[in-house]
Amino acid sequence: MSEVDWEQQRAFLAVLETGSLSGAARRLNVAQPTVRTRIFALEAALGTALFTRSPGGLTPTERGMALHEHARAMALASDAFVRTASAAPDEVAGTVRITASEVIAVEVLPAILRAVQREHPRLVIALSPSNRNEDVLRREADVAVRMVPPKQEALVARRIGAVNLGVHAHPDYLAGRPLPTRFEELAGHRLIGPERDSAMLRQVQEANFPVRIADFSFRAESDHAQLAAIRAGLGIGVCQVPIGVRDGLVRLLPDFELPLETWVVCHEDLRGLARVRTVFDALVNGLRAYLG
What is 76-159+261-291's CATH topology? Predict the structure, then answer.
């Protein structure tokens, strides 16, 4: 087997995850022929085809799929390597990558992080809004805000409290309409929710809000898009109670309340880094203030 270099593996991962040479080129910020050359060189070095070509793009072969997690692990390790080397351990400088749910990341964290970066101007924040629990142990993120209790070992975790979800609507939507106080009174109202079944939807249904996907007149898989629709007056939906209070939304159905346990976690090996410790503590304090 010929020698394989990291740039070839980066090209492989980018093509696998974007589905095309052009998408990989954009991700890597290189020319498309460069990506093609690296893929051909990698296939030659491994002695196997990694993709099949078709008019619709590139489809990974069975061997290519088998290599996906290995390439991804290397990419995560490379990113973590760069972040770790971005500043000395005792400096509040360099890069800290944070992952949090869409709504928390977009609606809550920026105000908390503003104060941290004002105090530490050499600190760089990489924020990943994602409802997928990115793996802190695999160093997908340095610090994570999670809405479920952490189960993995080797993590430092702080419980923040429970973020309550409630049923809300904008005053403009409710103008001229009677305020519903029970689920049965929602008949005839426009409801906002997801496109598909999910664990969160089932939690909502079990918390005295037995809504069905067919009931939603506005549907979006993005929780943040649903929140935007509530704020725009498109109908009635579920959102975090502190956001509803902040944005002047009207809370409906007082019997409905769904608490989401909220935690801040990081890998125990990173807690000793000044930049990670500073961000971790700021998130803990800021989120506790958000919950009141």
Answer: D-Maltodextrin-Binding Protein; domain 2 (3.40.190)
